[in-house]
UniProtKB/TrEMBL annotation:
InterPro entries: RGS, RGS_RGS8, RGS_sf, RGS_subdom1/3, RGS_subdomain_2. It comes from the Eukaryota. Pfam families: RGS. Keywords: Cell membrane, Cell projection, Membrane, Nucleus, Signal transduction inhibitor. Residues 56-172 form the RGS domain. This is Regulator of G-protein signaling 8. It is a peripheral membrane protein. One of its GO terms (cellular component) is plasma membrane. One of its GO terms (biological process) is negative regulation of signal transduction. It comes from Cisticola juncidis. Its main location: membrane. It is found in: Cell membrane; Cell projection, Dendrite; Nucleus; Perikaryon.
Amino acid sequence: MAALLIPRRSRGMRTRLGCLSHKSDSYNDFTAILPDKPNRALKRLSTEEATRWADSFDVLLSHKYGLAAFRAFLKTEFSEENLEFWLTCEDFKKTRSAAKLASKAQRIFEEFIDVQAPREVNIDFQTRELTRRNVQEPSLSCFDQAQGKVHSLMEKDSYPRFLRSKIYTDLLSQTQRRLS
């Protein structure tokens, strides 16, 4: 009866907001999360490989399809900036040009570390300030502490949830069904 008293417009807005806030980690079509030639990739992914992702977080990160599945999971949790920052730092460490080092460091800082950055990662004030100072005289290790904090956060928080997620369990089921 109370629902009848709520204006139609208000109910519609509430429904739309509810859809936006709903986190769905159900993927029936894994082709959306697997890089390059997804149908072939899923056929090549073995149950043993997918099972090994549960051995350690670093095993997951080192596997192309594990990384793609984890990224898809983080998107459902609205926290993919953590993985993107970690990957960007890994790429940054490969920078060989001193001229590019400073501009890349500044761009990474502005995108992920600075307060109100577009893809701000969750790090403590001390780490943020240390990183700010490090970027003033950039080196290949200027993001190491921030990257370590983000890695630890993902490993202790997101990774266990990923292993329990529908994305991961369904992916394992699909690889096992293929063997039957």
